[in-house]
Design brief:
- This protein is mainly alpha-helical.
- It has one domain.
- Helices cover 61% and strands 0% of the residues.
- It contains eight helices and no strands.
- Helix 3 runs antiparallel to helix 4 and helix 4 runs parallel beside helix 8.
Amino acid sequence: MIRFLLNCLLWGLGYRPRAAETSSGFGADQLVPTRERNGFEAAVRLLSSLLFLAAVFAQFLPSEFGFLTEPRLHLLALASAAWGLQMILRPSVPMDGTAISTALWSFAGYFPFFLLGDLSPFFDKDPTNLYTLLWQGGTVATLVAIGLFRDIRREISPE
């Protein structure tokens, strides 16, 4: 379990294992070209990874890390909000695999709670954290869809 969480963290920071050699000579690295992350996307990934680590520690030291799931703070939604602001304020950033993977990694702070089964911050007395997660997911999905349609429209329209 710890190795899986460590692999998730390393993937979120951008480290990928080398692709296995294939008989055709084309590995997974050559099939899908991706662009390099910009500085803001790298910062969002770093913030998401730090929230991921804090959420892992929150599973073992719940009293010290209770601020992560404070209903009025919405700290776990901070990375997605930052990513969403970038996509709204900088429409020149394409909605490609790099942008979508950054958006998905912005949910990393929630992952240890669901993976390790400690759902009490989401379903106990105050379901505000659950509502925040649902709104966050809907907003990110909407921004991804808008960005994909925007990029398709750019490709179709003549310049």
